[in-house]
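Session log. Operator J.P. requested a structure for one protein chain; no other inputs attached. Running the standard single-chain path with token output.
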Amino acid sequence: MARVVTVIFSAFSYAVFFATFLYLIAFVGNIPLIGVTVDRGPYGSLPAALTINVALIALFGIQHSVMARQGFKQAWTRIVPKQAERSVYVLAASVTLLIMFAFWRPIAGTVWSVEGIAAYLLWGLPPSDLPRLRLSKSGPSRLREGLEVSSDCVQNGDARRDTL
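Structure written below.
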């Protein structure tokens, strides 16, 4: 029974990750389908926005870095089964991003701007070239790999979490 729960939890965690990843694209891309984006949402004073946004980015960075450390993983797997450790990490990272999206404060005006060839290099290829890109370890392939690792861990009783 515990194995089935672990696989269901892993599937849930990676589904939340996938939805969060899609929302991240809309958030950063300023897609009008969502209310709060990097440039749209509740405005505040510049010092308040900078403080909140830096704290949100730091929260994500700290969560992401601390949970990735071997020492944390060893301590954490005393509480969470080894087979579910990576799924908990993925879910925690997704929830942290969702918190960032919810509390982000846009800054009025232009914060930075890049033009000419530098903009092309920064933003990469034009949208017409996107179908030619091979995106590794993102979206559906990441979800599939996560589910395969969880399933392998449950079947074999070990964790291949360091391979992700």
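Operator note: The CA atoms of residues 28 and 95 lie 17 Å apart.
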